Every structure is written in C-alpha cells, then in structure tokens.
Amino acid sequence: MTNSAGDVFLADCPARLAIEIITDKWAAVVVFALSLGPCRHGELVDLVGGVSRKVLTQTLRRLQGYGLVDRRAYAEAPPRVEYSLTDLGRTLVEPIAALTDWARSHGQAIVDFQEAAREAAEEAAREGPSAT
C-alpha cells in the first residue's frame, strides 16, 4: 500500500496525532515558551499570557503524557516544580518557529481579508436582498 496525503487523516496515523498535538490551542505556545528554558508554573502563566492556571496545568499534563514535557519537583521548602522540554519536545521548536514566522509574515493579510469580508457583508446587508 502506498501512502497518500489523505493517510495523515486516518485515526491511527502517527502524523494525525502530531497534528492534533500542535494544533491544540495552547500546546504550541507552551512548547515555544519552554524552548527558552525550564520554567515554573507561574512563570509560564506570565510568559504565555491569556491562559488560565487550570488550562495551563491541563496542557502541561497532556504534553507530559506525549513525552514532550518533563516535570521536575525539587525537595525544597517551599516545594519547587519546573517544567522543561524533553529531547522529543525540543524537536517541535523548529516547526513551531516556522509557523510563528508564517504568522508574523501573513497575519496582517488574514486580518485585512477578514475586515474586507466583514465590510462587504455589512454593505450587502445595508443594500438589502434586492442587491443580490
């Protein structure tokens, strides 16, 4: 059997799992934040911005479950926990950086398109059904 582009959409395909991991709303951002080095939970909340502590915890646990993030607890008082990327997790930094570069280069074009589409829809609504 030969592989086709459609194979990545099969439920049991490893490529589909990888796509599901990086398209999670916060996973790519957390991986990119951890590419700067090990962080404590509160530091990640500040770095990521906009993520709740609960959602960040869920995202970190999911990434740990995939073997992408390591959680290290230190026997100190008060206890200290740091998160870092595993070797496997570090392999995602370059693809996520490429997506980030794409967003920087093309994000404004998407915003411009959305604004033009919204304005066209508003204009059509003002003109009423007879204009179509």
Descriptive account of the structure:
The protein is mainly alpha-helical. It has helices at 14-23, 27-34, 41-48, 53-65, 87-90, 93-127, and strands at 69-74, 80-85. The protein has a two-stranded antiparallel ribbon with strand order 1-2. Strand 1 (69-74) and strand 2 (80-85) form a beta hairpin. The longest helix is centred in the C-terminal third of the chain and has 35 residues, at 93-127. The chain is elongated. The model has no long low-confidence stretch (mean pLDDT 88).
Topology:
Layout: H1 14-23, H2 27-34, H3 41-48, H4 53-65, E1 69-74, E2 80-85, H5 87-90, H6 93-127
Antiparallel strand pairs: 1-2
Q: H/E element string? A: HHHHEEHH
| Main beta-sheet annotation | 2 strands, antiparallel
The count of strands amounts to 2
Q: How confident overall, as mean pLDDT?
A: 88
Poorly predicted regions:
none
| Strand arrangement across the biggest beta sheet | 1-2
Strand-residue fraction? 5-15%
Helix content: 55-70%
Radius of gyration, in angstroms, nearest whole number: 21 Å
Number of helices: 6
Q: In one word, what is the shape?
A: elongated
Give a summary of the structure in a few sentences.
This protein has 132 residues and is mostly helical.
Features of the shown structure:
about 130 residues; mainly alpha; two-stranded antiparallel ribbon; 6 helices; 2 strands; elongated
